[in-house]
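Fold this sequence, please.
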Amino acid sequence: MNLLAWNCRRLGNLRIEKELVSILRAKDPSVVFIAKTWVEEVRLDRTLSYINFDQKWVVPRTTRGGGLVLFWKNSVNLKVVGSHRYYIDAVINKNERDEWRFTGFYGEPDAAKRNEAWAKLRSLNSNQNIPWLCVGDYNEITRQEEKRSGVLRSFNQMQLFRDVIDECGLMDLGFVGPKYSWSKHFESGQSIWERLDKGLAMNNWFLLFPDPSSAILKKVAKCEQDLTWWNNNCFGNVRRTLADKKKLLAAAELEAMRSGNNSQVQLLKAEVNVLIHRESRLWSQRSRVLWLSKGDSNTNFFHSKATKRLQKNSILGIRDLTRRWLNQSEDIGQAFINYYTELFSSCPASQCGALDKIPQVVTEEMNADLVGVFHEWEILDAIKQMVPLKAPGPGRMPPLFYQHFWPMVDKDVTSSVLMWLNSVLANRLKKFLPNLITEHQLAFAKDQLITDNILVVFETLHRMKNQTSGKTGFMALKLDMSKAYDRIEWTYLETLMLKMGFCAKWISLIMACVRSVTYSTLINGAP
């Protein structure tokens, strides 16, 4: 079933109706949601007949603008369960196995009143617990990248929208085609583009309408559901359960003194030891101490480490690029955006002569090995090399999950990630690194440490400082390599690999990894 949501602005206009018919012929939807109709219901009756749909639900306009309408065909089992000037809420296939909910939403155009729209969206979330798809024009963006040109959107204003999305458990469906869904053009020649239209859905809606490539995410979601049940019914609240068991143990010891039977004491002691071990593991994971196997296993240590980590990560103030002190959350967020925008912006420079002395060190045999057919065992090797409790991926599971349950998920993971070969590419290149880099390159190479270079520099400067005799002197030249790995131009990297002799296929794989990178920043726990 296809569904169409459109912000048309004056549906009664003949040109708009012809454009709507053209879209319907191309997409053939069974349900159509239209915002900002700007017309009376009588005109919408004519539109219903004009587009050959069977049913409609109208939210009349309250002023000259506004107005919502939902058209659908009789082939769809759809029932409207509520409406407001901000939305039309409907249930499709009600009381059936594949029941789900569709809401056509139109956000408040006035930023000062936008909290009213978010309050209605929250109330919709509390109504029913079935798969939910909410589509429409929200009149708001979630981040600055969704707007081009014009005044920067207020950080707090975007945060309110992000908060309601998170509270409702909604996820963005993404988009195919143009990045921006709304634009405004001025006579001065300036234009503003924004992505105001979005499709948001709950996780259970994605499971009801899965993407063929998302089989692994479906299994991960099922695993998350089972783990949640296990945590609530089996694992439980470790600290509370441990405290209860210690109280029972103290009572059992008193009873054993009176009766001479200590069987209950031994049983409770064994349970307490298991809970203490669980609590230690729990806090060790939360603290993210990587040297756990060699460190202190005291629970209080890990508890304080996890608590202090939150305090340490809190930013109360920051100086921007102009040395101004900023302490407002919105200003701090904007300062980070400005800094990283400048840091990761391209500054093309002439490469004339820079690569003339680079020798060709990659042979045909190396290239054949690098771009050969990728195998399943290479993916498994890459997963095993990941730090088990590092940051989780899109499925919210850390590498430890895939390492431990590989026999269960290997086929799905392998079929899903063969196109994402970052770690596999790195492993293939490792074999040839000794032939590609000099012996002085110590950083980012296996069994070599950048601290070795530091020791060499220290000894060299120490020798120079203490040399007080002789006619021959020495000079040390300090090169500022600040941000060397952050600021490499992609075109330079591509030309360098070509100069070294890498084949075109390998270069395209590497550049695909480089150019597809994205960055997200959390400031005091908020994006």
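The mean pLDDT is 79. The two ends are 35 Å apart (CA to CA).
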